Amino acid sequence: MKKLLIAFIAFLIIAPNLVHSRTDDIVFVVPQKPGGGTSVWASIVAEQLEPFLHGTQIQIKHIPGARDIPGFNKWHNELRFDDNYVMISHGGNGVSFLQENVDYDYRDYELVGLMNLNIIAGKRIGEDMDYPKFSGGAGKVPEAYAMALLICGPLANLQLYVDCFEEHVTWVNGMSGSERRLAFKRGELNGTRENPAAYKKHVAPDENAELWFHHGILDIETGNHSDDLNYPGYQLEELYKERWGVYPSGPFYDAYKLVKSFRDGLQKAIWVNKGNPNAGVLREALKRMSQDPDAMHAIQKKVGNYQWVIGEDDTPWFDTLMTFINEPGLQTLIMFNKQALGLDSIYKDELVM
C-alpha cells in the first residue's frame, strides 16, 4: 500500500507536466486516411520540421471523408480557433473550392508555407493511351482536361471536347486511393497519377509502369507552368506541341490552366487561422528546415527537388491565384465537369473577380 501511495503521489507531481507537453504539441490536420498522398507528404515534412521547433512535437490527425472535404470543413468550423491546430491542405481541396459548396475559405487563413509541387501521370508500358482507363474524381479534373487535350487536339468548342472525351476515355468514379493503385498494378487501369512523393513510392518502382505526362511547375508571377526538372521533357504543353504542331490555346485550355493552377498551386500547403501567434514560429522553423542540407536531402529523396514558398514571399500566393478566375474559364470548367465527368459541380459567381 505504501508503494502504491508513493507511486500515486509521483504521478500527481508529473501529470501536469505531461498534460502541458501535450497541449504544446502542434497538430497537423490531414483531411484523408493514412497512406494517402497528402498523408505521406505530411509525415515526411513533420519528421524533418520537428527538430526545428525547439522541442515542440508534431502530431498528425487524420480526418477522412468524401473528396477530402469534411476534414477541411471541420478545421474551418472548429479546430482552427485552437492555435495549435494546423491545416495541411492539398490540390483536391483547391479544386473543390472552385466548383463545390464547401465551408472552408482560404481567404480566412494565413499561409505558413507550401511546396510548389506537380502531379505526375504514369501509364502501363505498351498501352494505347488514346484510350486511357483512369480512376476519376474531383481532384483529378486536371488529368481529364490533359487527356482531352492530348487525345483530341485543337477543337472548335466545348461540346466537341465532351464528345471526344466520352468516346476515348474510360473515367471510373468512386475508387479509393488504394483501390486505384491496385487496379493500376493489375492492369485494370492503364493510367494513374500521383503527387511526387506518392509517385516515387507507388509508380516509379513498378517495372510495368512508365512516365506519361506531368502538368509543370506553376510560376505565380506569370500564371504559366514550366518543365519539372525532376521529370524533364514530359510537360503536357510540350507533348501537345509534339503531337499537334502548335501549343494548346482557347477556352478549353484556359479552363485547364485555371483548374490545374488551383490544384497544383495549392497542392501541399500549411495553413493557420488569421492572427495565429504560432504562424511566425512555424515559418521560421520551415525556413531553417529548408536551409538545412540533411533535412532537404531527406525530403528530396522521397519527394523530389521542389521549391518551398515560405514567409513574406507566400503572402500574395492565394490572392494571385484568385486573379486567374474569369467567367468563361469557370463556366467551361463547370460545364465539362457535369457533361463529361459526371461531377455535381456548381458555378460560384462570388469567385469571379
Task: Annotate the secondary structure layout.
Layout: H1 2-23, E1 26-30, H2 37-49, E2 58-62, H3 70-77, E3 85-90, H4 91-99, E4 109-116, E5 120-124, E6 133-135, H5 141-152, H6 158-168, E7 170-172, H7 177-186, E8 191-194, H8 196-203, E9 209-214, E10 217-218, E11 225-226, H9 236-244, H10 251-265, E12 268-273, H11 279-290, H12 293-302, E13 307-310, H13 317-322, H14 327-341
Parallel strand pairs: 1-2, 1-3, 6-7
Antiparallel strand pairs: 3-12, 4-12, 4-13, 5-8, 5-9, 10-11
What's the tally of helices? 14
Largest sheet: 6 strands, mixed
Write down the overall mean pLDDT: 90
Tally of domains: 2
Distance between the termini: 73 Å
Helix content: 40-55%
- Structural class assignment: alpha/beta
Report the radius of gyration as a whole number of Å.
Answer: 22 Å
Overall form: globular
Strand content: 15-25%
Instruction: Give the spatial strand order of the biggest sheet.
Output: 2-1-3-12-4-13
Total number of β-strand segments? 13
What letter string, H or E per element, gives the SSE order? HEHEHEHEEEHHEHEHEEEHHEHHEHH
Given as residue ranges, the uncertain stretches (5+ residues, pLDDT < 50) are 2-22
